[in-house]
Queue: 2 jobs
Job 1
Amino acid sequence: MRIHDQVAIVTGASRGIGAACAKTLAREGAHVVLVDLLPSEETKQEIAQINPNVKTLSFEVDIRNKEAIQDLVKQTHEEFGRIDILVNNAGTASRLDLEEMTEEMWDRDIETNLKATFFLTQAVIYPYMKEQQYGRVVNISSISGIIGGHLSGFEPGSTKGRSGPAYAASKGGVIAFTKWVAKEVGSLGIAVNSVAPGGVETAITKGMAYNVDNQSIKRMGTTEEIAEAVLYFASKESAYTTGQVLKVCGGAAIG
Ligand SMILES: NC(=O)c1ccc[n+]([C@@H]2O[C@H](COP(=O)([O-])OP(=O)(O)OC[C@H]3O[C@@H](n4cnc5c(N)ncnc54)[C@H](O)[C@@H]3O)[C@@H](O)[C@H]2O)c1
């Protein structure tokens, strides 16, 4: 097991990519703290099947709430005595284009995807990962944050309904934040990296048309394929890698 007895916090763990990350980290021996707006009972039960030797803790909170974040991080440390891994995964994606974009939707995506990533990263590093002189932070961004929105649409061949400008801006922000923090904390034994998925079959992409024919690998990705990339960044084996963005996108954004 690659992360035996380590402690991982995963946001957005009740379904989709977050649930896959939680299960993969548990399979490799980590105790997992499941954070989501929704109940994480199903993920918890699946983890008990995958690896009965690991403990889970769950928090049903809105990660945009700074006090809730500080509280859950503190409680995690009280329960386990350390925090080794943080996976900032929870996210929202409005599909309004620029003309239709509202302040409310803009704020929702920016606060969930970017501001909450700041809250959690700050809260786990200072003081816990710094005291341990060890930590792994993995931020889930998106190729939308690199190429300015994926070319998906409500209808095949249409780009109406592609992930919107707030989403692209938030994910681009996550990438810049990842690099910035990586430079600050490398000397503390903490690595900060990002996985940028392309189209993956989850609730966010359900019913949307992705033009996978334009990709090198002509299909949608699976949540497990993203989780395996996260595992690499979450493990000790990635010790000399920081501030990096790994695109896991079937070749949709090569270069
Ligand atoms: N599915 C894709 O194609 C794709 C592509 C690129 C990036 N991503 C990113 O991957 C991450 C996971 O997305 P997914 O596809 O699994 O979607 P999903 O909707 O299945 O999962 C997102 C989870 O985040 C939780 N969440 C949302 N807002 C929250 C909040 N304020 N507080 C706490 N929890 C909250 C949701 O309840 C949900 O369980 C997101 O950051 C998303 O932007 C997904």
Note: Helices lie at 16-27, 41-50, 66-80, 103-132, 144-147, 165-185, 223-234.
Job 2
Amino acid sequence: MRKPALTIDGLGVSFGGFKAVDGFTTVVNDGELRVVLGPNGAGKTTMMDLISGKTAATEGKVYLYGQEITNKPEHEIARAGIGRKFQIPSIFRDLRVRENLEVAAARETSVFRNLRLGLRKEERDRIEEVIDLTRLGDVLDTRAGDLSHGQMQWLELGMLIVQDARVILLDEPTAGMTQAETLKTSRIINELKGKHTLIVVEHDMAFVREIAERITVMHMGKLLAEGSIAQIEADAAVREAYLGSGGIH
Ligand SMILES: Nc1ncnc2c1ncn2[C@@H]1O[C@H](COP(=O)(O)OP(=O)(O)O)[C@@H](O)[C@H]1O
Ligand SMILES: [Mg+2]
């Protein structure tokens, strides 16, 4: 049996009495890809903010491989192994693609040690794997700021993998992507299955169908349903929650 990677236990936050996330509980196993669905305002982004320490929880706990990380400073949670991809990628726009990956690999040591002494073999190997995975081999010498929208997103995801993030949070990773870029993103994510633990918030159901294993549906800050895509689509409470928003689409 797989062990829990991320355990979320009764997690919640209240903004002036309004509970954006309300007693949310789920367990994401090691190597699992979990998709999180929910209507606008359901609390999906806030839930990621609570996990990553951007927002402090007012109730509940979060454990990463059994170690409690609730309400630790954001940088400590990142160092413990939660990697988050942002809408505006946190890449170094003036550095080349390869340099971005090298800086990410050097994260735990000193960038200056790496500039002077070079990367360790395992770090170089990991960079090569990520270059294959993200298909960025043709643009390694390109300034990151000159990449296409999709390539920037793949570079940032690649940087999280080079850093060996234990749990990767992706909030609407295909937003603003073309259909071709979205398809490529689903291929990348499918290749990560089993090797990395991922939580992906996404609206694009065509994309969700490409990648989904287990799905969690949030509604009004709470867990509404959990199961396979077929179970979720047949769930009466899920249909009800999406009423007026045109259903899950
Ligand atoms: N810092 C905040 N202060 C007050 N309300 C907030 C804050 N952050 C989010 N919310 C509210 O919490 C709810 C959930 O938001 P969000 O997590 O962004 O939803 P989702 O990502 O599922 O669309 C929304 O009603 C939003 O307006
Ligand atoms: Mg959101």
Note: The beta strands are 4-15, 18-29, 33-37, 59-64, 67-68, 82-85, 167-171, 197-201, 214-219, 222-227.
